[in-house]
Design brief:
CATH superfamily of chain B: Thiamin diphosphate (ThDP)-binding fold, Pyr/PP domains
Number of helices of chain B: 12
CATH class of the largest domain in chain A: Alpha Beta
Distance between the termini of chain B: 53 Å
Number of domains of chain B: 1
Helix content of chain A: 25-40%
Number of helices of chain A: 13
Oligomer: heterodimer
Shape of chain A: globular
Order of helices and strands of chain B: HHEHEHEHHEHEHEHHEHEH
Mean pLDDT of chain B: 94
CATH topology of chain B: Rossmann fold
CATH topology of the largest domain in chain A: Rossmann fold
Order of helices and strands of chain A: EHEHEHEHEEHEHEHEEHHEEHEEHEHEH
CATH architecture of the largest domain in chain A: 3-Layer(aba) Sandwich
Low-confidence stretches of chain A: none
Structural class of chain B: alpha/beta
CATH architecture of chain B: 3-Layer(aba) Sandwich
Largest sheet of chain A: 8 strands, mixed
Number of domains of chain A: 3
Low-confidence stretches of chain B: none
Strand order of the largest sheet of chain B: 2-1-3-4-6-5-8-7
Strand content of chain B: 15-25%
CATH class of chain B: Alpha Beta
Shape of chain B: globular
Helix content of chain B: 40-55%
Largest interface: A-B, 45 and 41 residues
Chain lengths: 372, 275
């Protein structure tokens, strides 16, 4: 493919289209607007569906409805809208409806800093909706990754029947970079597994080896019930402890079984490192330059870049070489991933956070001051 | 009546779904009967029908019907249904909601679905109360009536669902009661048949909670009130006088034609593709 100059938000749309998104519902909010605007141009031309809903609650609901009717569906938003979507993200987790939610993070809480970057929604992406539920959260640190991870997000949502959140910080959403996109034919696309059995044999929420039940679309001849109530294998409400326990545990099982596949990370110069910066999103770019700077100054620094934030890539931290004595976690928040690193580290290494919440990027100098 | 019952039976889910959770004397089952009879009369294949419901007593309707059923979050049924319908416009979409569900928490989705004129039928079971949560006041609790959150009488004005639906742009709006089931059957058929956003408000008694708090008598008394307190737009000789006397009009309030959203979207796709 020819090199192109693309913005992160544009690359996200391109990725979504390649991944087979056929339905987009959204509501205007900065700094995610380009995604909805470009979708409204691109999707009708492709014979696919775009709708602007009355709010983010409705957007999330429409996305779930469309997915149940067989579409590959997504939405995009930012902090305040992401808060409104939480209710129905929980529904999608409970009813196991594949869908993708892109959150281009801006400063919070509340209306906060609409046009300035932040990574303040990391824990909200994990625990924003009520109740115990698994979730998959990905985060890109370049325009190309915005493309790649959107495809991953759609694929994971289909494969595991789960909502997948893509967190972009505002910097990545609005960053323009030269990218060479891969040929669409070279990209693996995953579609949800559908039942082929006679309708009377279909058990819509039955456990199997993968833990992911087969999903029939409404209108395909498998009449069944979907509810946000805790349900049995047939989809009907239940309060029987054994059925409730099995249902909730299966939700976790299916994601746990896919952990190795879902855990996306990259290491840079960590093999002989004595200190490693654990970073994600635009901050990982700064961290990379800091690593090179420190190496020049004689300090053996390395970078662990997280592309998957949830389930937390514990094994990537544990798998760092024995030589690593110090971990640094720079974030545009008060330490939301820092605490996770601290948790999985279990006192083995020194862990320090570098937090910044003033709406500005963390500069290399600020990082060097702490790490050096 | 025997003939009708046989028809109803074919549309119900028989394993593990019964008995119904609704109280004795509740009107919800009567509405369900009307919906099923309409599906049968209209000859709609069960595979092609989607029933979307919200949360509350009415929300449980979808559990019992052998079509594609989606029991959503509180107030959001119309927004879920919008996604289903747009993804597969060939499906017949029925949306079942209560008064609190459709008009309080779901009020925004209600007016926008009407404005958009997307082809689906919104059934608003109106029992003037939040029944499942124990009897709190709803947007259709009449002024002065008692609820668990209005122990001294409700001071808020209630919604007129018909005027709200009309103002928001619904192309069909009608009100029926569970007392007059023959007429209700007709109204359900008309509402489903309409190509556009249809609202059917069904006045339905809640003897267990609303009736008890307001001393409205037994379930049978409440059904009798439904007859006595309403006046049909088709039959009343002087409708204005009847309404002035405090009676609630029933019948078809709105039946107009406007471009339907899915059809407009299909036209937009052709335009975008330069066809």
């Amino acid at each position: 493919m020819e090199p192109q100059l693309l913005m992160g938000n544009e690359a996200c749309v391109e990725g979504a289209i390649v991944a087979g998104i056929t339905f987009y519902a959204g509501y205007p909010i900065t700094p995610s607007n380009e995604i909805g605007e470009i979708m409204s141009r691109r999707l009708p031309r492709l014979g696919r569906t775009f709708i602007q809903m009355e709010d983010e609650i409705a957007s999330m609901a429409a996305v779930i409805g469309a997915s149940i009717a067989g579409a590959k569906a997504m939405t995009a938003t930012s902090g305040p809208g992401f808060s409104l979507m939480q209710e129905n993200i929980g529904f999608a987790a409970m009813a196991e409806v594949p869908c993708v939610v892109v959150n281009v993070m801006r400063g919070g809480p509340s209306t906060g800093l609409p046009t300035l970057p932040s990574q303040g929604d990391v824990q909200q992406a994990r625990w924003g909706t009520h109740g115990d539920h698994p979730i998959i959260v990905l985060t890109p640190s370049s325009v190309r990754e915005a493309f790649d991870l959107t495809i991953k997000a759609v694929n994971f949502s289909e494969q595991y029947r789960t909502p997948v959140i893509m967190l972009m910080d505002e910097v990545i959403g609005h960053l323009r970079e030269k990218v060479v996109l891969p040929q669409p034919e070279s990209i693996d696309i995953i579609n949800r597994a559908r039942p082929t059995c006679p309708p009377e044999w279909y058990r819509p929420f039955e456990d199997n080896k993968s833990g992911v039940p087969l999903m029939a679309a409404f209108g395909d001849g498998y009449r069944y019930h979907i509810t946000g109530l805790t349900h049995d294998e047939m989809g009907f409400p239940t309060t029987k402890p054994c059925e409730v326990d099995a249902a909730i545990n299966r939700l976790f099982k299916k994601i746990r079984q896919g952990f190795d596949e879902i855990m996306l990370c990259e290491t840079f110069l960590t093999d002989d490192a004595t200190c490693v910066i654990v970073a994600y999103g635009s901050v990982a770019r700064t961290a990379k330059s800091v690593v090179l700077q420190l190496r020049t100054a004689g300090k053996k620094a390395g970078l662990l870049k997280l592309q998957t934030l949830w389930p937390f890539p514990r094994r990537a931290i544990e798998g760092l070489p024995q030589s690593v004595k110090e971990l640094y976690v720079p974030e545009m928040n008060m330490g939301q991933i820092y605490r996770e690193v601290l948790r999985v580290n279990q006192g083995r290494r020194t862990v320090r956070k570098i937090s910044k919440v003033d709406g500005e990027l963390i500069t290399p100098q600020e990082m060097v001051q702490v790490v050096a | 009546m025997a003939y009708r019952n046989i028809n109803v039976y074919q549309y119900l889910r028989h394993e593990k779904k019964f008995p119904l959770i609704w109280c004795a004397g509740c009107g919800n089952g009567i509405v369900l009967g009307s919906i099923i009879r309409a599906l049968h009369t209209l000859g709609l294949p069960k595979d092609q029908v989607v029933m979307v419901s919200g949360i509350g007593c009415s929300g449980r309707t979808s559990t019992y019907v052998d079509v594609n059923t989606l029991h959503t979050t509180h107030g959001r049924a119309l927004a879920f249904a919008t996604g289903v319908k747009l993804a597969r416009p060939e499906l017949t979409v029925l949306v079942v909601m209560g008064d609190g569900d459709a008009l309080a928490i779901g009020g925004n989705h209600f007016i926008h679905a009407a404005r958009r004129n997307i082809d689906m039928t919104a059934f608003v079971y109106n029992n003037n109360i939040y029944g499942m949560t124990g009897g709190q006041m709803s947007p259709t609790t009449p002024q002065g009536k008692i609820a668990t959150t209005a122990p001294f009488g409700n001071i808020e004005q209630s919604f007129d669902v018909m005027r709200l639906a009309e103002a928001a742009g619904a192309t069909f709006a009608a009100r029926g009661t569970v007392f007059d089931t023959d007429r209700l059957d007709e109204l359900v058929e008309l509402a489903i048949r309409k190509n556009g956003f249809s609202v059917l408000e069904i006045l339905s008694p809640c003897p267990t909670i609303y009736g008890r708090h307001n001393k409205l008598g037994s379930a049978v008394d409440m059904l009798r009130h439904l007859d006595e307190d309403t006046v049909s737009l088709d039959e009343a000789e002087n409708i204005a006088d009847a309404i002035k006397s405090g009676k609630i009009p029933t019948g078809v309030f709105v039946d107009i034609d406007r471009p339907e959203f899915c059809e407009s979207y299909a036209a937009l796709v052709k335009k975008a593709q330069g066809k």
